[in-house]
Amino acid sequence: MMRLPIAKLRSLASSTRHCITLSDDSTLVLFRLPALASNQHKQHIARHDDVEYYLMQEECPHAGGPMSDATIELDDVEDTYMASCPWHHYDFNLDTGESKMGIKACTYPLQIENGKLYMVVNTDALQVKSVEPVSEEFIAPKTKPMERVADDIDGADNLPVRVTGIEYLSDDASLTSWCVHILNTSQPEHKIQLTHYLWLLYTTREATYPMQIGSDRPPDEPPRDALLKVVHPGSFKGSGRAGNVKHRVAMLHSLANIEQWAIDLALDIMARFSHFKTSRGTCLPRQFFHDWLKVANDEAKHFSLLRGRLEHDDLGNSSFGALPVHHGLWQSAQETSHDLRARISIVALVHEARGLDINPMTIGKFERSGDKGSVDVLRIIHRDEVTHVTTGHRWLTWICEDEETDPVNVFRSNVKKYFRGSVKGPFNQADRQTAGLDADWYANLEGTPKTVLIAGG
Predict the structure, then answer these.
(1) How many structural domains is the chain composed of?
(2) Does the first or last residue of the chain, that is N or C, have fewer Cβ atoms within 10 Å of its Cβ?
(3) What distance in Å separates the CA atoms of residue 387 and residue 385, rounded to the nearest whole number?
(4) Is residue 218 part of a domain?
(5) For the ranges 116-130, 154-168, 255-269, which has the lowest average pLDDT?
(6) Rounded-to-integer distance, Cα 234 and Cα 147, Å
(7) Do 16 and 125 share a domain, yes or no?
C-alpha cells in the first residue's frame, strides 16, 4: 500500500468539507468533523487533536447526488457520523460507507503524519489534481459587520450563536412562530441571520428535544425594507451580456432579489401548510419541514454570497438596494396559497426549475467577462438549486403516492390552472433529469394566458 499526499492540515482548517479531484478525474469529498470518542481505533479515520477526517466518494451511489452537500448527522445508536444525500436522503456511514438502504458508498483510509493528511492507495499512478473547499459561507455585509454574542439560556454551549441588534424569539418557540417572525422581518441582513440561526437551532435540537411545528399564520406578503424601490416585474428588461460592470451588477442585483423572495417562499410553505393533510388524512412528516428549512437556509446563503459580490471592489462597491426590485415571484405564492400541490408545482417545479435552465447561460456570460468571483458564487447557487427542485419533486411525489394520483398529471394540471403562458425552453435536460423531472413533466406544457416567469426561487 502507498500513501497519496492530500494537503497540510492547516490548509484544511477553513472548511468542514473539501472536494478532491484525482488525476483520473474521480472526485472525493473530505469531511472534517469533531472527534468521537468511539472512533479512536478505527482504521479509515484520521484523527488530530479534537478533529477527525473522513474520505468518501463525491457521487451518491444511488443516483449521483453530490455528497459534498450531504447533511451530516450523528447516529446515537452506533455513535458514528452518517451522511445523508441531498437528493433522495439515502444515508451512508462515513466510516464504512454502508447504508440502511442496502447499497454502499466507497470510503478511503486516511493517515496523518507531520501535520499532513494522506490517502492510503494501492497504486502509484494517482495524483491529487485539486483540493477545493465546499462553500458553507455566509458573507457578512461590508458596511456594517455584525457582532456575535453568546446566548444567555441554559445549554447555550450546544446552541447556535446570536447576533446583536437582531430580534430573536425564545428558543422554545415553535417552527411556525420562527417562520412567521422571519417572514415579517423586512431588513434583509436580519432575515438571513435569523434563517441561518433557525436552521442550526432546529437541526441541533432534532435528536434530543425536537422543536414543535406550531400553527402560526404567515403574512399575505412579507414586508420589504422601506429603502428599496419596488417596480412592476414587467418593467424589467434584460441586463445584457455581462460584458461590463454595470450589466453584471444589474444581473447579480436581480438574482439577489430573487434569493430574498426564495427565503420567504421556503419559510411560507412550512408555516402556511403546517397542518396540511392529504386526501386520505395523512399529515406531513417532520422530514418535510427539515427539507424546506434546508432550502431556506441555502437561499439565505445565496443572498449573502450575491450581496458580497455586489459589495466587492471589482464591481464598483455596489450594494443590494442600489437598483429597483420587483415582487413578481411572490405573485405565484399568493395564487397558490390554498393548495400545497399547486404551490410546489408552480414555485419549485416551474420557477426554480427554470433557474436550472438559465443558470448555465448566466455563468457562461460571467465567464466570458472574466468575472471569476461571480462565476464561483453562481456555481454554488446552481448546484444547490438542483437539490431544491429535487425537494419539490420529492414532496409532490410523496403527496401523490399517498393519494394514489399521478404526480406528472397533478403537476401539469396545476400549471394549466395557475401558470400563465407556456413553459418554454431551452431546457437543461440533464439537470432537470437529475432533479427527477424527465420530459414528460414539462414538454409541450401550456398554462393560461401570459405571466411573468421568474427563473429561480
Answers:
(1) 2
(2) N
(3) 5
(4) yes
(5) 154-168
(6) 39
(7) yes
